[in-house]
Specification:
With 93 residues, the chain is mainly alpha-helical. 55% of the residues lie in helices and 8% in strands. The chain has four helices and two strands, in the order H-H-E-E-H-H. It has a two-stranded antiparallel ribbon. Strand 1 and strand 2 form a beta hairpin. Helix 2 crosses helix 4. The longest helix has 22 residues. The protein is flat, with a radius of gyration of 15 Å.
């Protein structure tokens, strides 16, 4: 792994906690992801389909500098795919 040993140790130590470390370069992407909490598209018969990208664009325009939009979108798509796997596996929607 590319993360420093101290960071990996901190992550492991806080794994059971509700708190978790966020690298500075990921803070903006996480902030947008959390702001999108109520903006998920749900299938009529249940199951999450993904984030509402119209809402995502609006939130990014308000909170992320334009030069970081592509990077932020790429980060969010990684988080979205991971979240969809967990949400749909648990049947939470």
């Amino acid at each position: 792994m590319g993360a420093p040993a101290e960071f990996r140790a901190h992550v492991e130590a806080t794994r059971q906690s509700r708190e978790f470390p966020v690298l500075p370069e990921n803070a903006a992407s996480l902030d947008v992801f959390l702001r999108m909490a109520t903006q998920w598209v749900v299938a009529p018969m249940g199951g999450a389909l993904g984030m509402n990208y119209a809402s995502l664009r609006w939130i990014m325009e308000l909170t992320v500098p334009p030069e970081r939009h592509v990077r932020t979108l790429e980060d969010l798509q990684v988080m979205e795919r991971a979240a969809l796997e967990v949400i749909n596996a648990r049947g939470e929607v």
